[in-house]
Design goal:
The chain has 4 helices and 7 strands, in the order ββαααββαβββ. It is α/β, with parallel strands linked by helices.
């Protein structure tokens, strides 16, 4: 059995939050087609808005998923020291992949009480990075 929340739409139609989002997207796609009159477009958009507001998704926010509790930092930095990823080799030249340098910076300073990890001005290329405890990543 699914652990996903059921939301109740007006007229007591039980529907899962994922289905509400799909319905809203379908209505929006139809409404944005160029061959539909402005009146029909407005009606479809109002129906989509109505479904969103009264579905509970808008009122309850994003459903809490189990994996959301298992990721991300669990504590904030204990000091206000600022560390630059450039000190670990990130160039910010819009050509070099800086993922390894960014992650090395986060790893090194997370273990030493943390602080703010930031970037010198530039354009940085990166893949996935994992923020750890006591680290605040500041991107301007």
């Amino acid at each position: 059995m699914s652990s996903q929340k059921n939301y109740i739409l007006p007229k007591t139609i039980g529907i899962k939050s994922d289905h509400v989002i799909i319905i809203i997207k379908i209505l929006a796609i139809f409404a944005l087609q160029s061959n539909i009159s402005m009146k029909k477009r407005s009606i479809l958009l109002l129906i989509a808005l109505y479904a969103f507001i009264f579905s509970g998704v808008a009122q309850n926010g994003i459903p809490k998923l189990k994996w959301m509790n298992d990721v991300g930092a669990k504590s904030f930095p204990k000091n206000n020291t600022t560390y630059y990823v450039n000190d670990f080799g990130a160039l910010g030249d819009a050509m070099m992949n800086g993922t390894e340098a960014i992650q090395k910076t986060i790893d090194a300073y997370s273990a030493n009480g943390g602080g703010k990890v930031t970037f010198q001005p530039g354009i940085y290329l990166s893949g996935f990075i994992f923020v750890k405890n006591n680290i605040n990543v500041a991107v301007k």
